[in-house]
Amino acid sequence: MAGLLEKIFKKEILDPAGCDHILKVMLGCQTGARRIRGLLPADIPVAHKTGTIGGTTNDCGIVYLPDDLGHVALCVLSKNTNPDRTEDTIALIAKTVFDYFCFAEKTH
């Protein structure tokens, strides 16, 4: 999934207009407020798609880092877990990744 997101972002899987459309739709995703975007600053764009069916609680997306630090593709997929706890865990994973890349870049 992360590889697919990367290809969409780099416009390697469809024509550029198609990839831009996918990203625009994903940036407008209104579900999963407690998942990848849950603990991130409100002004950070996240192009993502959630999924919840048959005991799964998922979120895959691209986090747009601030200050021209780049982008991070992140996918968290779960199976047979407590949805509330899983959403909290997805948010914590995303925040940890976000903080790592923002902090690591500033120390170099």
Which homologous superfamily in CATH is the superfamily?
DD-peptidase/beta-lactamase superfamily
What is the tally of beta strands? 3
Helical coverage, percent range: 40-55%
Q: Tell me what portion of residues adopts beta-strand conformation.
A: 15-25%
Unreliable spans are none
Strand order of the largest sheet: 1-2-3
The Rg value, from CA coordinates, equals 14 Å
Give the SSE order as H and E letters. HHEEEH
* CATH topology-level name: Beta-lactamase
For the largest beta-sheet, the strand count, sense and barrel status come to:
3 strands, antiparallel
Kindly name the structural category: alpha+beta
Q: Termini distance? A: 29 Å
Question: Which features characterize this protein?
Answer:
108 residues; alpha+beta; Beta-lactamase; 3-stranded antiparallel β-sheet; 3 helices; 41% helix; 21% strand
Overview of the structural elements:
The termini are far apart. This protein has helices at residues 2-9, 16-27, 83-106, and strands at residues 46-53, 56-64, 71-76. The chain has a three-stranded antiparallel β-sheet with strand order 1-2-3, sandwiched between helices. It contains three helices and three strands. It has a single domain (2-106), classed as DD-peptidase/beta-lactamase superfamily (Beta-lactamase, 3-Layer(aba) Sandwich), CATH 3.40.710.10. It is of the alpha+beta class and 108 residues long. The mean pLDDT is 94.
